[in-house]
Input
Amino acid sequence: MTMQTAQAVNNGVNVAALMGAREALSETPAAARFNWRATCNWINGTHSRSDVQSFFGLGEEQNHKMMTSFDADHPEVFASEDNGPTPVEYVLVGLASCLTAGIAAVAQHREIQLHSVTATLEGSMDIQGILGMDSDVRNGFDNIKVVYDIDADASKEDIEALVAQSQKRSAVFDALTNPTNVMVEVR
Amino acid sequence: MSNLSCSAICRNPRLTSTVIIGAGQAGLAMSRCLGQQSIDHVLLERGEVANSWRTERWDSLRLLTPNWQSALPEYCYNGNDPDGFMAMPEVIDFISGYASRISAPVHCGVNVTEVTQTDFGYLVDTNQGSWLCRTLVIASGAFNIPMIPKAASALPACISSISSQQYRRPEQLQKGGVLVVGGSATGLQLAQEIHRSGREVTLSVGEHVRMPRQYRGRDIFWWMEQSGLARQSYKEADDINRARRVPSPQLSGSTNEDMNLNCLTDQGVKLVGRFSGVHHSKALFSGSLSNVCKLADLKMRRLIGRFDEWAMGVDIDHRVFDQAEFEPTRISSVPSLDLDFSSGEIKTIVWATGFRPDYSWLKLPVLNHKGMLKHDGGVVEAPGLYVMGLPFMRQRKSSFIHGVSDDARALCQHLVGYLDDPTGIRQQCA
Output
């Protein structure tokens, strides 16, 4: 048993609800199918705006509390207007927020109080790929580095275990490290 | 005519209280317990006693557990090398010797084709006629069918592939490079052996369990046994479904020899991430190698820490040994994400990707959506039906040879209670 602590660990994650959901979904695995969506409209040049609002899950249509829009563009060094982050930077945002959410959830489950969590990400690529200059160079990142600075009531080893477990259960980490079928069609 | 003779056989099944399917260590341990309770029973064995050990293992394999640990109910190792590890002929002798010692009623060469429920109990159809029994014990093993990734079907024709169940020795493989897929005991042992045969070996590694062979002068299984971890009940496991899927630890049956990814790297084996598919005649590997190695290192240190903590509280003589430091698993900063089959670098793939049990003959509503038996500590969700020998079935050690004794005793007690009072409230095992 854990020792009695003066104050309960609170990272703002409702672990009981997550465990309950896992229990409930084991009875009805079909409800575990989620479809995540985004729509994207071209604006001008390399500038586009994507909207995220609805998704499907637990057997029915769902909606975020509000719609969110994301402007994406390329920077001026690419002769663009820089109306927003580049798409690959959104990939880094997705990875960082997925891993960080995982860290909070795992920490809550393991009764570790977090004080601050900061991730610094860097994805490197050789743009000879996207420019079509060398067919041996891939288009995407050839390496992504994530560095976490974490202040928490836990040993370094326990913090490392948090970060490792969060990668193990991360949807975006999985999507980046493993192949995924991508079907692009025109209507 | 043939239909008539079949139904004639089916209508005249032989009767017994209990049928045990499988005469390996699990079935035999149960036979011993039933015999002591004077429960009439038979063991139906598709081949010979210890069949999987005879026919489904590679030549150089030795048990992962030391000899002193090999024990079955009222039977234990009594040779002169307690710290050694049995080779397969010794395992076969050990188990066959037990079958003789307890005069187990084994019917060899009997292949169970179908099990159905009747008013009386269970009808067991075989290639040698039928049996009708009130109680049934499934001891046919957890490792019957190799689990080969679906992507294997997309391999180019120039690549031959073989499962660890069919693999016997390196000479079986054609000359040239080999991709071994699987990071548990089997994958590592085969990678090492094949590499030593003069072939270039790439090892694909997913989530795995790292363990030192010895710690502070004692075998790792000594620590597991003494600290009580091996006897941990399935009811105490944090997440029993996950615990039951944990792959076998990276070990080999050799005193003092560690079997881990660093050793293989030093010997020249190349490490890549989990095999995740085939695309344009390339094998693709996950970019998660660094994390799965980190997880395994952390979990090993946690396990060792648990042993250290236990050792603090007891008076044992090995405290003279220092607590060891373990070198983190070394991996390349940029492990390969693919392997081009058309380059000719690889000629053969060896799948060491685990097994699943075969219940194709079991015509009862006792399997979950993944095709696994629904059971509570070996008590299956059908009256009078039991299973033996599955990973972490009742205790962490359930799938090991030495793990079946406690399970057999507990399930035998439940079974006897059921025979005495089948309508009574289902008994709880001790």
Observations:
- The longest helix of chain B spans residues 289-312.
- Chain B has a mean pLDDT of 92.
- The first strand of chain B starts at residue 14 and ends at 21.
